[in-house]
């Protein structure tokens, strides 16, 4: 169990390790009877590498939210000598207590050992998987989807009966280096086990040769999403693979980007999830200029498209049908 820790939804299911995290921040609650009682009742809920907590705290928006949640917890725990006047109006406490709280977890690790965190928010059978920055130099999607998590936390009406999985940094090594590919020079969006996979030095010797693409596939297998949105740049359009046409047009009706078929790339997420697995899969290409926008500006421009995708009420997709597909546009830059 070395290197693995317990981390729970801190509002609903505090546990021993999350208590230690709180203790380190606030220096209180060491002897809380309530926590010991919860430990005995086995209320811990998940197993997550401890550094995911650090990642969570390092994200500005999440750090703010976590700070509010943690302060509320400290105020709520009986026997804690805490000053509740500093943090928590009653209305905000009630809102956070009833709203679904984001749960942070780790999908895997990059070639260079960086964690690939993801956030789950909401519950329900209808699951939406949202990915950003699978290409490290197309990073505008990352602050946009982080802003989405904040929005879903504060406005849970978008979530009724739905679960949303958000992965803000699929290719963290590429983001650090500002490169499209991962640290081994592989294009992760050509590394999936689609029928049109092509083995080469840029796409990988085999499908799923890279830890980052395996992490994405693990999430698909674990959560079985009914639709997938993957954010890219810079083509300023909404592309789709598999049975995603209705979803693409619904998104286009809620934002400034048109629907445009770019062609199914070899070994791409769209080729595998969309065509091979039959999951409506959207490649949301933001414009290049999106990189210069603030999170709030990104949200006001493109957030409604993401909410429309989450609230989309299309029919369930057909289950895993295998099609042979042909690469139409191998030399194209993006997607
Ligand atoms: Zn891309």
Which structural category fits the helices and strands? alpha/beta
Write down the overall geometry: globular
Instruction: Find the CATH superfamily of the largest domain.
Output: Zn peptidases
The spatial strand order of the largest sheet comes to 3-4-6-5-7-9-8
How would you explain this protein's 3D organization?
This protein has helices at 16-26, 33-40, 51-58, 60-76, 90-98, 141-154, 172-177, 211-223, 245-252, 269-276, 295-311, and strands at 5-6, 47-48, 103-109, 115-121, 126-132, 162-167, 227-232, 235-241, 281-287. By secondary structure, the protein is α/β, with parallel strands linked by helices. The protein has two domains: 5-98, no CATH class; 103-311, Zn peptidases (Aminopeptidase, 3-Layer(aba) Sandwich), CATH 3.40.630.10. Strands 3-4-6-5-7-9-8 form a seven-stranded mixed sheet, sandwiched between helices. Residues 1-64, 66-87 and 316-333 have low confidence and may be disordered. Zinc ion is lined by residues 135, 138, 232, 334-335.
What is the topological layout?
Layout: E1 5-6, H1 16-26, H2 33-40, E2 47-48, H3 51-58, H4 60-76, H5 90-98, E3 103-109, E4 115-121, E5 126-132, H6 141-154, E6 162-167, H7 172-177, H8 211-223, E7 227-232, E8 235-241, H9 245-252, H10 269-276, E9 281-287, H11 295-311
Parallel strand pairs: 5-6, 5-7, 7-9
Antiparallel strand pairs: 1-2, 3-4, 4-6, 8-9
Bound molecules: zinc ion (ZN).
Zinc ion (ZN) binds at residues 135, 138, 232, 334-335.
């Amino acid at each position: 169990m070395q290197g693995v820790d317990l981390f729970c939804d801190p509002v609903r299911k505090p546990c021993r390790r999350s208590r230690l995290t709180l203790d380190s921040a606030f220096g209180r609650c060491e002897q809380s009877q309530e926590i010991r009682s919860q430990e005995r009742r086995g209320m811990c809920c998940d197993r997550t590498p401890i550094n995911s907590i650090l990642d969570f705290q390092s994200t500005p928006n999440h750090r703010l939210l976590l700070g509010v949640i943690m302060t509320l917890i400290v105020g709520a725990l009986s026997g804690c000598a805490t000053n509740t006047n500093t943090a928590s109006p009653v209305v905000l406490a009630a809102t956070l207590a009833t709203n679904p709280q984001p749960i942070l977890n780790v999908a895997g690790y990059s070639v260079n050992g960086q964690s690939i965190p993801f956030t789950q928010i909401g519950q329900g059978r209808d699951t939406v998987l949202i990915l950003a920055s699978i290409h490290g130099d197309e990073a505008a999607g990352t602050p946009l989807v982080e802003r989405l998590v904040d929005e879903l936390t504060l406005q849970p009406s978008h979530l009724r009966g739905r679960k949303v999985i958000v992965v803000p940094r699929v290719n963290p090594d590429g983001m650090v280096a500002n490169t499209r590919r991962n640290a081994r020079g592989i294009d992760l969006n050509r590394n999936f086990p689609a029928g049109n996979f092509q083995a080469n030095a840029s796409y990988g010797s085999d499908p799923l040769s890279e830890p980052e693409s395996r992490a994405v596939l693990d999430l698909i297998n674990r959560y079985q999403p009914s639709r997938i949105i993957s954010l890219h740049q810079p083509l300023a359009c909404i592309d789709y693979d598999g049975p995603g046409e209705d979803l693409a047009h619904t998104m286009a009706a809620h934002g400034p980007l048109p629907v445009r078929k770019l062609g199914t790339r070899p070994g791409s997420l769209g080729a595998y999830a969309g065509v091979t697995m039959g999951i409506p899969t959207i490649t949301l290409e933001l414009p290049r200029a999106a990189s210069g926008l603030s999170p709030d500006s990104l949200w006001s421009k493109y957030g409604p498209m993401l909410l429309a995708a989450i609230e989309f009420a299309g029919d369930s997709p057909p289950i895993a049908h295998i099609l042979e597909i042909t690469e139409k546009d191998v030399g194209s830059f993006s997607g």
